[in-house]
Amino acid sequence: MADAGIDTIEDVHFVQVKFPLLNSERIEDARARGHTVVTDSAYASMGYSHGASSLGVAAALGEVPPQTGAAAVLADWGLYSDVASISTGIELTHNVVILMGNSSRASGDLVIGHALMQDALDLPGVLDAFRSAGLHSASLGATDLADCVINVFAKAESSPDGSIRGYRHTMLDDTDITATRHARAAVGGLIAGVAGCGAVYVSGGAEHQGPPGGGPVAVVARVLGA
Fold first, then answer.
1. Could you confirm whether 155 is annotated as catalytic?
2. Burial of 93 (0-12, 13-18, 19+ CB in 10 A)
3. Nearest CA to 2 among 94, 85, 103, 81?
4. What angle, 0 to 180 degrees and rounded to 10, lies between the N-to-C axes of helices 179-195 and 123-132?
5. Per-residue pLDDT tens for 53-82?
6. Does the annotation count 49 as an active-site position?
7. What is the pTM (predicted TM-score) of this model?
8. Annotated catalytic residue: which of 49, 53, 85, 87?
9. Residue range 149-170, pLDDT digits in tens
């Protein structure tokens, strides 16, 4: 926030973190030093990385109690961040953090806003995100809206309880397409239909990034009339 010239938490709308993963070499190194790891699976460590980073963002921004610790990761699903977006990579050994928000010291004509999708069908949540950035789809034609949209960033995951609004979904059981790709495609299509363009990036794996099955949506837009 300090680097970006953002003075208040309310002006923070998206926090992208890239977080390292475990691999066999790191696991063996930890054990050689007398430590244990949370999982022996590099793939499973992705969820823990997502969850830990997201709750770290949430603690920093006052979204969860500051004493929130490791025991809450992948356990207390009532704790999450409204603005965190976490990605992971085996190539990293440290975190990379990019924070986006609005600053009174900014000299450009771009703004950012955000809202939460409660589930993969939450069109009102998507519209709230566009409104937060000053874009009102009801008063703009699709072409005009697309001209204002710079990019939309979102998180998506397949609802972990296997249902959406009382209906069973098949994302977790499809043998052809992984659940992450299903969720990203569904949410990406929903958002792109509102934006009127394909400037949409949807990241999968939304552990503690919004409520289970949902996730944050951030809209970067050009100020109307600027």
1. no
2. exposed
3. 103
4. 50
5. 999 999 999 999 999 999 999 999 999 999
6. no
7. 0.92
8. 87
9. 999 999 999 999 999 999 999 9
